[in-house]
Design goal:
α5 links the parallel β5 and β6. The N and C termini lie far apart (62 Å). The chain is globular and about 65 Å long. Strands 1-2-4-3 form a four-stranded antiparallel sheet. A two-stranded parallel ribbon has the order 5-6. α3 packs parallel to α13 and α5 packs across α7. It contains 13 helices and six strands. The longest helix has 29 residues. By secondary structure, it is an alpha+beta fold. It has two domains: 165 residues, no CATH class; 181 residues, no CATH class.
Length: 415
């Protein structure tokens, strides 16, 4: 009997060892597998992710390492744990940087643009270009366009490594040269930037101009308000924190605008209708466009400028998050997030809340009068939104066709 038990134990131990060895071997070969362009494995059906669940607000995908290929190009290697979703709504320290889904850019770009820029997908792993590699390939792509497709506008967007999460730095670079940050922390914020920023290369000049004006309006508002406040250190400190969160709300909307992956890029009627609805909201300030006592949020708001959007956001914060005296009926209905209580409380000692409101309105009026270009209204009707949608689809199509031709001519072995 003991012989049978010994044989059984040896057999079971051998099977366990082989299974463990195979798992470890497969992990060690992961970087090799992820570098293979698997066209049939591209994640076009993101909505059918079987692992989307109630746990999607927890971190799932992680950046395993930075990989450098034989040409010296650098890439992120992303890993999805077994039976977990690619998408996550988990945010980092700022609480305004949800991880999103790093596959979104691939879905937006399609197989040819994805392949050219170095996006490769495997079941549980993903290769994504770093900002340095992305910029390098954008430059080569633009040079090829000028020579072979002069009628296609080059890609104006660039990316840069961001060491610290600075909102004003983000706005300045966006307003000046359409540069978008990618955090070098290699954690949730990096995943957010990949998910929400990388798709921006297909955006039309009109959409990018809107984002540029939005960033410019926020920066000029901050500069003018600083002059109004003067040298009062307590007020400066309080307003600094308040402005950061006001700007984060606007930046989070800008990030959503940059990411085209969360809305299907196909041209079917339902997707088109979703896009048009999204553009109406995005170009008019989304939820901040409605009065605080609004009962119906389904009626679209049209004809707002970037200053109108900024003013609505500021007004929302003034009346909801800053008025701790509870004078507005809506305040009792809204639970102020605990992390905002300390950061946004301007009602502390020696702070004149009423005077601050007056200064804010004066600054907004001055901003309007001194910067007439910031009063431009992009979407004043549903037809305007549809026109923006059509231009975006055409822009994407032209870039995809150019990438397809480039790969065929310059890299025939890759086809």
């Amino acid at each position: 009997m003991w012989v049978y038990k010994l044989v059984y134990r040896i057999f079971f131990t051998s099977i366990t060892f082989l299974f463990t060895f195979n798992v470890l071997a497969s992990n060690s070969q992961l970087c090799d597998k992820v570098l293979i362009a698997n066209k049939s494995g591209l994640p076009w059906e993101l909505d059918n992710d079987p692992y989307l669940s109630k746990d999607m607000d927890k971190p799932s995908v992680r950046i395993k390492e930075l990989y450098t290929d034989s040409a010296g190009d650098e890439f992120f290697i992303l890993i999805r744990p077994h039976r977990q979703a690619w998408f996550s709504s988990h945010s980092g320290k700022l609480r305004f940087d949800p991880a999103g889904d790093p596959r979104w850019p691939m879905r937006v770009f399609g197989p040819h643009l994805s392949q050219y820029f170095g996006f490769y997908f495997h079941t549980n792993s993903l290769q994504v270009p770093t900002p340095t590699t992305f910029n390098k390939r954008i430059k080569i792509f633009n040079q090829w366009l000028l020579k072979n497709r002069p009628n296609v506008k080059p890609i104006d967007v660039q990316f840069y490594w961001q060491k610290e999460q600075q909102i004003t730095d983000y706005l300045q670079k966006l307003a000046c040269d359409l540069s978008h940050p990618v955090a070098d922390s290699l954690c949730t914020h990096t995943l957010h930037d990949i998910s929400y920023h990388y798709s921006s290369i297909i955006l039309t000049p009109e959409i990018l101009y809107f984002l540029r004006l939005k960033a410019e309006a926020q920066l000029k508002f901050r500069a003018l308000l600083a002059k109004e406040i003067g040298n009062n250190e307590k007020q400066q400190a309080a307003v600094k924190h308040w402005l950061q969160d006001v700007f984060r709300i606007n930046v989070s909307e800008m990030d959503s605008m940059l990411s085209r992956g969360n809305i299907n890029m196909s041209t079917d009627a339902k997707s088109k209708e979703n896009y048009i609805k999204y553009f109406i909201e995005a170009f008019n300030g989304s939820w901040t466009a409605y009065p605080l006592d609004a009962e119906d949020y389904s009626i679209p708001v049209f004809g707002l400028s970037v200053i109108d959007i900024l003013e609505n956001t500021i007004q929302y914060y003034l009346e909801i998050f800053l008025d701790y005296q509870g004078t507005h009926p809506q305040i009792k209905k809204i639970k102020v997030p605990s992390h905002l209580n300390d950061r946004l409380n301007l009602g502390h000692q020696n702070f004149n809340y009423s005077l601050f409101q007056i200064k804010v309105r004066q600054v907004l009026q001055r901003l309007r009068s001194e910067n007439p270009h910031l009063n431009h209204r992009f979407v004043s009707s549903k037809e305007d939104a549809e026109n923006i949608y059509n231009k975006l689809i055409e822009r994407r199509k032209s870039l995809v066709n150019a990438a397809k031709e480039l790969l065929k001519k310059e890299f025939p072995s890759a086809q």
